[in-house]
Amino acid sequence: MQKVFKKPDSLKDAPFHYCAGCQHGTVHRLIAEVVDELGIRENTIGIAPVGCAVLAYDYFDFDMLEVAHGRPPAAATGLKRARPENIVFSYQGDGDLAAIGMAEIIHAANRGENFCVFFVNNAVFGMTGGQMAPTTLIGQKTQTTPQGRDHKHDGYPIRVCELLATLEAPAYIERVALCTPKLVRTAKQAIRRAFSIQIADGGFSLVELLASCPVNWGMSPLEANQWIEKAMIPYFPLGVFRYTGTGHSPD
Known about the structure:
Largest sheet: 7 strands, mixed
CATH superfamily: Thiamin diphosphate (ThDP)-binding fold, Pyr/PP domains
Low-confidence stretches: none
CATH topology: Rossmann fold
CATH class: Alpha Beta
CATH architecture: 3-Layer(aba) Sandwich
Number of helices: 9
Order of helices and strands: HEEHEHHEHHEHEHHE
């Protein structure tokens, strides 16, 4: 019998520690598949965040760098400038990127640094217990908003793609989701496009991935996927927000 599906070479043979229904594992697999398909495994360096994916270096089978909370874009800038021959990506959650790391991501994008950012938005601080994040929706209940997020007290959820798309320098910005098989395939295409742009020296790319956090949302995995479609996508619309024409074009 012919084997048609296997673990990507760029993933180690180690079980994920993520909670049931968490989609960090899905993102890990998509990144690993694209790295393998592009033949860049021996040249790739990933930057692990502080957050649920803090142990990403235990799963990716290529060079990884662990950095302080929110600082992956700063570390990626130095790494890519020092070693331009390497393919560099940062892997960040919404608490990491859009809270403590907001200054770093804006300035790296504004400079057009030639690396990829994979931004996992699950609308909550996951690792620290489910507190409100910059992307938490209005009315969403968290450990620090037990009555639901109130814009008068907590402000509005930040739309990172729309914010960065106002800058002149970024080459490619797209938001995708992981709640259906079709959307997972679209997410993989976006990840491939981001890597391809970097390979072509095209500049800064960011792919935002709307992902589930069933435990902190208090939902089953199925309910969490349905909530992404019902609540997250209407506020965080999917699509390409910026593309300057370098590398593989959006479909």
